[in-house]
Amino acid sequence: MFALYYDKNEQGLYRGIMAKADSHEVALSSIEKGEETLALLFVNHEAYSSYCKDFKAYKEWEKKRNVMRYAGTVAHGQGYDAKNMMHTIRLMEVARDLLLKGELILKRPNREALLEIKSGRWTYDELCRKVEVIQCEIDELYFESSFPKSVDTTYLEKSLLQIRESLYQ
């Protein structure tokens, strides 16, 4: 918590609120005895720093994003990354089918519906409702499934190493 003061006579007594233009630190100034406090300023350094990092990351992403893909997002006007949403739905359906049928079905029977999503013909709310329905189905199927409830990480690591060795020899 910091007290704020105003230099009414513009004598350059106080240094402002920020130490420097690109700083995250509060500027501190010596205050004459008897000066009137204008206001109190609460500074949450941790939250502000986190916000700045997130904002910087967003600006970096913005510079490096796929311009054509972003143009498609803007063109369909739905306000979401349609390609990402199509893949999200597709992968959730694959997971549901794996639990339901016990097999990995990569070639999707609903190709046209997925392409509609990719082209932005679904609203964001429609997609959210679809995701909720599929997630509920996955949750129920997982609870009822005979799949192990834990993962044998040693086996998986060994398998991954074997795959990498065969790919990169």
Plain-language structure description:
By secondary structure, the protein is mainly α. The protein contains 6 helices and 2 strands, in the order E-E-H-H-H-H-H-H. It has helices at 45-64, 67-76, 82-101, 111-118, 124-144, 153-167, and strands spanning 2-4, 39-41. It has a two-stranded antiparallel ribbon. Helix 3 runs parallel beside helix 5 (124-144). The longest helix is centred in the C-terminal third of the chain and has 21 residues, at 124-144. The radius of gyration is 28 Å and the shape is elongated. The mean pLDDT is 87.
Q: What topology does this entry show?
A:
Layout (H helix, E strand, L loop, with lengths): L1 E3 L34 E3 L3 H20 L2 H10 L5 H20 L9 H8 L5 H21 L8 H15 L2
Antiparallel strand pairs: 1-2
Helix pairs in contact: 3-4, 3-5
Largest sheet: 2 strands, antiparallel
Side-by-side strand order of the widest sheet: 1-2
- State the low-pLDDT regions, or none: none
Order of helices and strands: EEHHHHHH
Measured as a percent range, the helix fraction is: 55-70%
The pLDDT mean sits at 87
Number of helices: 6
N/C terminus separation: 61 Å
Percent strand equals under 5%
Radius of gyration: 28 Å
Q: What is the overall silhouette?
A: elongated
Described by its quaternary structure, the protein is single chain
